[in-house]
Specification:
By secondary structure, the chain is an alpha/beta fold. It has one domain: NAD(P)-binding Rossmann-like Domain (Rossmann fold). The chain has 11 helices and 7 strands. A 7-stranded parallel sheet has the order 3-2-1-4-5-6-7, sandwiched between helices. Helix 1 links the parallel strand 1 and strand 2. Helix 1 packs across helix 11. The relative contact order is 0.15.
């Protein structure tokens, strides 16, 4: 049984991805930083459906996290990493201070390094792996007040291309999925949610299951010749 780690697995998109991976027959580690209850609820649903999962509470940016992540590979490698962690501090560039910049870079980009670094060598030894990082439409098109967020998420694609060159011969793929407006409780709280949905050529927001379906394919056996790519789930907005 392949083992998967989904960081930010307690988020709406993360939970949909976890459940999709479990349906593929993987053991899924559902990670959360602050929402362990939501992560455990996701685990409970997976187990109730006959799947295999466990919850993990961890601050990825804490230096001690490397040892905990390494312990996940003690008995078997994590062969699938889906990195859903992200966060924003939206301000016009001229109003940003250095903490607004570095905090967003750390949360969205450094967190990926901190997660993958302890997992990559055990993954290499199995000569099979799937790495998917969730980005954003802001990284593709830019957005007002999101220079820091766009830069952080935008850094994922060249990172994945580099990982492809380094580890492609070991059967490891690395790709980026960039969702547009996705129907979640958080986005529905936006005052202009309906207007934003109408900006998509599809004239609607996407669903978490549509994101999970793409991630599920990119983490499957069938996607072995797709690597170093960024695919948008945005109804054609990009």
């Amino acid at each position: 049984m392949k083992r998967a780690l989904v960081t930010g697995g307690s988020s709406p998109i993360g939970q949909a991805i976890c459940e999709d991976l479990a349906k593929q027959g993987m053991h899924v580690v559902v990670h959360s930083n602050r929402n362990l209850t939501k992560a455990q609820n996701c685990v409970n649903r997976i187990q109730a459906s006959g799947g295999s999962a466990e919850a993990l509470a961890l601050d990825i940016l804490n230096p001690e996290s490397a040892e905990i992540l390494s312990s996940l590979t003690k008995n078997a490698a994590i062969q699938v990493l889906v990195h859903c962690i992200g966060g924003q501090i939206d301000k016009p560039f001229a109003a940003m201070d250095i903490e607004d910049w570095t905090d967003v870079i750390d949360l969205n980009l450094k967190s990926f390094f901190s997660t993958l670094r302890p997992l990559i060598i055990p993954m290499m030894r199995t000569r099979w792996g799937r790495i998917v990082a969730l980005s954003s439409l802001s990284a593709v098109r830019g957005n007002h007040g999101q220079a820091n967020y766009a830069a952080a998420k935008g850094g994922l694609l060249p990172l994945m291309k580099s990982l492809t060159y380094e580890y492609g011969s070991r059967g490891i793929t690395a790709n980026v999925v960039a969702p547009g407006l996705i129907d979640t409780p958080e986005t529905k709280e936006l005052g202009n949610y309906k207007a934003l949905a109408q900006l998509s050529p599809a004239r609607r927001a996407g669903t978490v299951d549509e994101v999970a379906a793409l991630v599920g394919f990119l983490t499957s056996e069938k996607s072995g010749y797709i690597s170093g790519q960024q695919i948008c789930v945005d109804g054609g907005s990009s």
